[in-house]
Amino acid sequence: MTRTALLAACIALGVGCGGAPPRSPSGAALLRSTGAGRPSLAGVVRDGDARGALAVAVNTEGIAPDRGALAAVALAALVQARLAARGVDATVTGGWGGWRARVLAIAPGDIAATVDAVRSALLDPVAPGEAALAEVSQRVSALSRRPMADRALIDVVECTGEAYATGAETPPSPADLEAWRQAAHGLGRVVIGAAGDSALVDAAAAALSRAPAWPRAAAPSEPPWPPPGARAVSYDASGEIAPGAARVVVVARTAAPERAVAAAPALGDPHGPLATRLAALDAPARIRSVIATAHPNGGCIAATMDMSARDLTADAARQVATAAALARQELAVEIQDAVVPADLGRSLVTRAVDPREAAERAAWWALAGPRPDQDARLTVVVGIARGRDSPEAASPDRTEAIRAEIDRATVAWHAPVVESHVRVERGQGETWILFASTCGVLSEAAVDAGVTAVVAAAASAQTERGDDATLEPFVATDGAGVLVHGPPRPGESAQALVRRLADAAARGFAADPIDPDRVARVRTELLARSAQPDAKALSALANVLAPGHPSWIQPTGTSVGLSYASAAAIGMRAASLRAGPLRVAVLANESDAQADAAVRAVDRWVARRPGEARSCPTPPTLAPARPGTYAVDLEPGALPEVLLAAPLPPGDEGARAAAVTLAAVLDGPDGMLSRAMGAPGATEPTGHGIARTSGATVLGDTHAPALVVRLTAPDATLDAAVAQTRALLDRLRQGALREEDRLRAVGAIARSRLALSLDPRSRAIALWRGDPSAPGAPSLDALRAFASTALRDDNLVIVAARPRRPDLDLHPPPGRESKVRLRD
Is residue 358 part of a domain? Predict the structure, then answer.
C-alpha cells in the first residue's frame, strides 16, 4: 500500500528542522514572543481537547555527523529519562538529524512546572553516573539492532530522517553526551510547541518568559547537497525484497520545505501520474512509499518503488533504469509545478487530531527553513536482490551497467518524443489540445476495421472529466487520439489549466490500460452505428474503393471488423499507437509559455526506450477500385440510398482540389445536382423532386480518395434519381460546366472554410495536421479537363442500398454489368 507522508517532521523519525532565527513558514502557527534569550513558542490555539499539550523540537544536524543518528537518539533518551524522574510522562523520539518530544498537559496551571522540567532536562549538564545514562545505553543498544541495509542508502535516510545504525553505535561517554547536549540544546536549535486553549498557550509563553535565559547552541551548518547530475548508486537489497526483485528510491531535495510537502500528495496518489506511468512500463513498478520532509535547510521527498522479479527480464538493467528515469522526471515536474497554499503550514498543524501531534507539528514546522539553492537536486538509489540462481546482485559491473542505463534513460526521458504544433489565441474562453497518433487507421485491414476507433473512443471515455473539461475521440485516416478542451477553474493559472487538460488527454491515450468494460460499451455503440443504412452503404463503398482496407474511407470501422476484432487485437492496437509517432496540437488562450507547458505535460506521459525509432507501418499499395454496381440489403422500411463514386489518383493534390471544387458545383440547394433532381431550390432545401436528399463530397485521404455523390429517395424514384445523376455527370464530362457554376462553387467553398475557421475544434484539427494554406481554385479549363477524365461512366463505382427486392439480381439496368450483392 502506498504511504504518503505530508510532513515527515511529524511522521517519520527525527527529521532535523532548525534555524536561526526560527520562522513560521506559511503561517504554520503563531510564534509567541518569549523575550530575549528564550526559545520561541509555536502556539496552536484550539478548543475542545480534554487536555492541552507541550512539544519540543530539536535540530541536531551537523553534530557528530560521523555517527549518524546516534547523537539525536542518545539525547532523546537522556531527556526522556530526566523528564520521567521529574514525573513528566513524555514521549521522546530521536532520529537522523533531530529529536522531538511531546507531553500531555493537565491544565494551564501545570504548564509552568512542565516547562521548568523541560528546561532542566535539556540544559542540566550531564553528570557521570547519573541515572539517565542507563536509558541512554538501552536506547543506543536498540539502535544498533536496526542497521542500515547499505551505506548506499545514506542519502535516503538523511532525507526521511529515520533512525538507522551505521556501525558506530557504541554508547557515548558522558563527556561526548555533554558535548552534544551543549551543541544542540540551545537557542537556534530548539522550538517549544504548545496546543490547547488560549489560556494554556498564554501560560506556556509566560513560563518561558519568566525562566532564566537559555544558552546559544552551536550554529547549524548547511549540509551539502548532492551535485547536479549525481550518478545513481546501487546496493544489494537481498533480504529487503524478494529474490530477483528490484527497488528504486528517488530522492529530491528542494530549496523550500513547503514545495516538497505540497508535491507529495500527487506523487503518492495511487491513481496519480507517477503511479499510472510506472504501471504502464514494460516492467511495471509499484509505489511503496512517498515521504516528504521539512529540514532546516529546505525540504526533501523520497519516493520508493518496487519491481517484481517476474516482471524483470534478462534486460533488467534497462527496465530498472527506465523506471528510475521516469520517476526522476515525474518528481522534478511535480516539484516544479506544485501549488503551495499560502496557509500550508497552518493547514498541516490544524489537521492534527491529537493536541500532542498539533504541538509537535507546529514546533517542527517553525524550525524548518529554506536554503539559498533554487533548483531541486535529485539522486537515485537502486537495490537489486540476488536471484535464486544468481550469486551476485550488486557487483561493480552490474552497478556500472545500471548507472549507464539510467544515464541513457534519463537522456531519453528528457528528449521530447512528441511532435508539437502550437498557436496562441489570446482571449479565447477555452484551451484546446489534440493528442493523437499520426498513423491513424492505415494499418487496419478488413478484419479489424474499427479497432483504432475503439481505442480512441475508449481512451476518451475512461478518462475522468467534469463540467470544466470535455474529451472526445478523434479518428481519421491520418490520425487517431483524444481531443480535450475546457475553461480554467476559478483561481486556476493558465499553466495549471493546460497541464490538467493535457494530463486528461495523454494519460488516457498514452498510459492508462484500456478498460475492458469501456471497450465493450464503445464497440457496442460503434456496431450500432455501423448497422445504420448510411453506414452500411458507405462500408460497401469503402470495401470497393480501398480493397482490404475499408477504414481508409470509413475510419470508424465496419460491422465486420468491429464484430470479429478480439480484445487482444484491440490491446495490441493501443500498444502500437502508443509506440508510434505521436503529435500534439495546442490552441493556448494566453501565452507561449502556456502552450509549452501543455506540450511538456503531454510528452511526459509517453513511454520511451533509449535509441528507439518511432514510425508508422508502410501502407500497402492498393489494387485499383473495380467499377461497377454493387447492391447492399437494408432492413425493410429503410429509406434507400445510392452512392456514386469517381476514384481519384492517389496522392494527386491537383486532382483532389478539382474534385473538391466539382463537389461544390454539384452540392447545395442551388447546386447542379439539386436542380437535376427537380428540387425547387434554396427556398425549400429538401424539395419534392425525385430524390429526398442529394449531396456531393470528397472522401478518403491521399491513399484512396474519391468524389462521391449521395442520393436518398423512395424506392419508386431511386432508379430515376440515379439515371438523372449519371446523365448530369456525363454532361459535365462533355464540358457542360460553366464559369458561373465554378464561381458559385468557389464562393461555397470559401463560406465553408470560413465556418470551419470559426470553430476552435476545426482549428485544432487543422493545426494538428499542419494544413498549409488552401490551394487556389482551379480554372474552368482545369475543371473541365478533370471532369472529362474522372467522370467517365465506365470509371464509376455505384453502391445501391435498398430493402431487398426479389428481382434485384435478375434484371440489371440496361448497359451495365450484373450487380454484385454486398453484405457488410
Answer: no
DSSP 125: P
Question: 753-780 burial by CB neighbour count: b if 16+ within 10 A, else e?
Answer: eeeeeeebbebbbbbbbeeeeeeebbee
Please report the beta strands in 503-581, taking only residues with DSSP state E, as ranges in sequence order.
none
Cα four-point dihedral sign 454, 455, 457, 458: positive
DSSP 304-365: EEEE-TTT--TTHHHHHHHHHHHHHHHHHHHHHH----TTHHHHHHHT-SSHHHHHHHHHHH
Q: Is residue 532 within 8 Å of 683, Cβ to Cβ?
A: no
Write out the three cell numbers for 191. 522550538
- Strand bridging mode 53-59 / 190-196: antiparallel
- What are the grid coordinates assigned to 618, written together? 508502410
Same structural domain for residues 167 and 267? Answer: no
Sheet with 377-384: list strands edge to edge: 3-5, 286-295, 298-307, 246-254, 377-384, 233-236
Q: What is the rounded CA–CA span in Å between residue 51 and residue 107?
A: 7
Q: Same domain, yes or no, for 89 and 190?
A: yes
CATH at 320: 3.30.830
One domain, residues 596 and 634: no
- 153 and 122 both lie in a single domain: yes
Domain membership flag for residue 594: yes
Task: With beta carbons less than 8 A apart as the criterion, state whether 341 and 26 touch.
Answer: yes
**473, amino acid identity:** P
651, 702 contact by CB (below 8 A): yes
Backbone angles phi, psi at 398, to 5 degrees: -70, -40
- Identify the CATH number of the domain in which residue 648 sits: 3.30.830.10
Of 195, 210, 225, which residue sits at a domain end? Answer: 210
Burial, 313: exposed, middle or buried (Cβ in 10 Å; 0-12, 13-18, 19+)? exposed
Same domain, 172 and 259: no
Question: pTM of this prediction?
Answer: 0.78
Residues 180 and 282 in one domain: no
User: Where are the extended beta strands (E) located within 403-503?
Assistant: 418-424, 431-437, 470-476, 479-486
**Across 3-17, 32-46, 528-542, least confident range:** 3-17
* 3 lies in some domain: no
Nearest to 170 by CA among 258, 273, 260, 64: 64
How open is the CA angle 283-287-291, to the nearest 5 degrees?
Answer: 150
CB within 8 Å of 269: residues ≥ 6 apart: 2, 4, 275
SS3 681: strand
Which burial class, exposed, middle or buried, applies to 48 when counting CB atoms under 10 A from its CB (0-12, 13-18, 19+)? exposed
**Rounded CA separation 710/688 (Å):** 17
Q: Per residue in 557-573, is it b (16+ CB within 10 Å) or e — as a string?
A: bbbbbbeebeeeebbeb
Residue at grid coordinates 528510491: 249
**CA geometry: angle at 437 spanning 434 and 439, to 5°?**
140
Torsion angles phi and psi, residue 286, rounded to 5: -115, 135
Phi, psi at residue 511, to the nearest 5°? -135, -50
User: pLDDT of 495-532, one tens digit each?
Assistant: 889 999 999 999 889 988 888 889 999 999 999 999 99
The number of domains in the chain is 4
| CA-based nearest residue to 382, from 353, 352, 365, 403 | 403
* Residue 474 and residue 446 share a domain: yes
| Domain interval for residue 581 | 430-603
Q: Where are the beta strands (DSSP E) in 558-692?
A: 582-588, 628-634, 641-647
Residue with cell 551497467: 401
Identity (one letter) of the amino acid at 540? Answer: A
623 in any annotated domain = no
795 shares its domain with 677:
yes
The string of DSSP codes covering 378-396 is EEEEEEEPPPTT-S-SS-H
CA–CA distance, 198 with 196 (Å, rounded to integer): 7
Secondary structure of residue 706 in the 3-state scheme? strand
pLDDT of 136-186, one tens digit each? 999 999 999 998 888 889 999 999 999 998 876 688 999 999 999 999 999
Which residue, 171, 195, 210, sits at the end of a domain? 210
